[in-house]
Amino acid sequence: MLRKSLPVAIVLATLTLAISAQQPAKPATAPVVHTRENLAGMYDGGQMEVGALLELKPDGHFQYELAYGAMDETAKGTWEFRDGAVFLTTVPAVKPPQFVLEGDVTDPRGGLWLKLSSGPVMEGAKQDVFLFYDSNFGADAKPDLVEVGDDGQVPLPRKQMPKFIIPQIPVYPVISKPIPITGAAGHLITIRFEPNDIGKADFRAEKLTIENGVLVMTRPDLELQLHFKPRTH
User: Fold this and answer.
1) In whole angstroms, what is the distance from residue 146 CA to residue 114 CA?
2) Nearest to residue 136, comparing CAs of 175, 174, 164, 99?
3) Do residues 57 and 64 lie in contact, with contact meaning Cβ atoms separated by under 8 Å?
4) The model's pTM
5) Rounded-to-integer distance, Cα 148 and Cα 127, Å
6) Residue 179: count of CB within 10 angstroms of its CB
7) Would you state the pLDDT for residue 20?
8) What is the structure's pLDDT at 32?
9) Is 39 left (phi over 0), alpha (psi -120 to 50) or beta?
10) Which pLDDT tens digit goes with each residue over 10-47?
11) In the 8-state DSSP scheme, what is residue 200?
12) Cα diameter, the chain
């Protein structure tokens, strides 16, 4: 009796398994052990609409640059490797930009008016202001964000005077100190903008996790995650 031939695919599969069984198994690749020495180097964090560089120097210092939209940010300081992650600390400490209250006088026009004695914070950019109706400045606060008119008038969408205002610093995710508003009469608020160290990242043991040799920095303030890959040249 003639035996039927097995399909070619089954024969080839069986042959492949037989050959594989005769070959010695490849040793598992040992996981990379990160050290302070092998982490030092230049890293590129560029991605769509983002330019970013990070240099971890062997002497424990770092340099950092970020270009994101209209924002340019830099930092330098010290870095350390511990608990399986890299930590950046800006040195010297950053003095953040801020608005300084110069005056608050009664305005016969009523409502709320804002004057910047130092001129616009950013040429061509409108000045926005957060209106707070209580002393809650936390993540669950619900302020109004309004745009100051060219004449300095601050819109009051709730038809009431806020308890505090915080002028917004354009582009940069920096929050200035609240300015209290007392009384229901008209107010003319005069403020001055002090740039200080605007554009410098205020890292305070900023943690970068390590994922397959890539340093990952999460920036909730920018709604951005940066992946710094080692440069190979």
Assistant:
1) 12
2) 164
3) no
4) 0.79
5) 6
6) 19
7) 47
8) 75
9) alpha
10) 333 443 444 444 555 555 566 678 898 999 999 999 99
11) B
12) 114
pLDDT one-digit tens code per residue, 151-172 = 999 999 999 999 999 999 999 9
Instruction: HSE, CB side, 13 Å, CA atoms: give it for residue 210.
Output: 18
Distance from C-alpha of 209 to C-alpha of 92, rounded to nearest angstrom: 24
Sorted by where each starts, the structural domains of the chain and their CATH numbers stand as 36-94+200-230 (2.40.128.360), 98-194 (no CATH)
Give the Cα separation of 65 and 54 in Å (integer). Answer: 7
Q: How far is the first Cα of the chain from the last one, in angstroms, to the nearest whole number?
A: 69
Q: Which amino acid is at 17?
A: L
* Element spanning 16, H or E: helix 8-22
* Alpha carbon distances (Å) from 96 to 62, 103, 192: 20, 22, 14
Element (H, E) at 224: strand 224-230
Name the token pair of 28: 């598992």
What tokens appear for 208 in the block? 């970068």
Neighbouring CB atoms inside 10 A of 201's CB total: 19
- The position carrying tokens 């508003």 is 181
Report the C-alpha gap between 178 and 160 in whole angstroms: 18
Report strand pairing: 50-56 vs 61-68.
antiparallel
Q: 């910047």: which residue's tokens?
A: 116
